[in-house]
Amino acid sequence: MKVLVNEEVHVDYGQMFVESGGDECDVYDAFAGQDGVGLCGGGNGGMLLLLTGLHIGGVDFTAELHDGRPEVDEAWEEIVEAPFRPLSEETKLRQWNGKSSWELGLEERDYRVRYSGSGMDAGRSKNVREDDEPKTGERYLLQIWPAEPAPARLLKQTSGAAAYWHAFAAAPVG
């Protein structure tokens, strides 16, 4: 396992992205075809939309690259999986405002990602966290490993914030 990112990442509108040459990520397109799996939207080629409970501010975030499927850690409150394929040799985790990004060093191949989170409702209640304010306890883990494409899956959901995004992903557009 290789740790790719272990930082506080600033989110705006509760969003951050993994991008690799794809178009801008529309929240509706991101969840297209995911059958009610929210939080991590892979419907746009070469892009992942990652959602948080906090609307604006910093959240603890870790990204890991694995050789194979890691064990599911049930200590996380929210767990989803989705397929992902970078469209270029340059794949970055990017803040919504574009002020910071982190190179992930992924190859152009098929991957599976698992996005896990805890403290979403605390972040949602806080809404905006200034840099000098205490953290809400909200944190996220993105695990990436080589895998054949497979449908997105909801493995665990406990918070109201996550339930909202899963319902959003299940609703037809239009």
Model description:
The protein has one domain (2-170): Competence, DNA-entry nuclease inhibitor, ComJ (Substrate Binding Domain Of DNAk, Chain A, domain 1), CATH 2.60.34.30. A 6-stranded mixed β-sheet has the order 1-5-10-9-6-11, with no helix packed on it. A 5-stranded antiparallel β-sheet has the order 3-4-2-7-8. The protein has helices spanning 27-30, 120-126, 160-170; strands at 2-12, 15-19, 40-41, 47-51, 56-65, 78-84, 92-95, 101-103, 111-118, 139-146, 153-156. The protein is mainly beta and 174 residues long. The protein is built from 3 helices and 11 strands. The chain is 13% helix and 39% strand. β3 (40-41) and β4 form a beta hairpin.
Which properties best describe this structure?
single chain, 174 residues, Substrate Binding Domain Of DNAk, Chain A, domain 1, five-stranded antiparallel beta sheet, 3 helices, 13% helix, globular
Give the secondary structure arrangement, pairings included.
Layout: E1 2-12, E2 15-19, H1 27-30, E3 40-41, E4 47-51, E5 56-65, E6 78-84, E7 92-95, E8 101-103, E9 111-118, H2 120-126, E10 139-146, E11 153-156, H3 160-170
Parallel strand pairs: 5-10
Antiparallel strand pairs: 1-5, 2-4, 2-7, 3-4, 6-9, 6-11, 7-8, 9-10
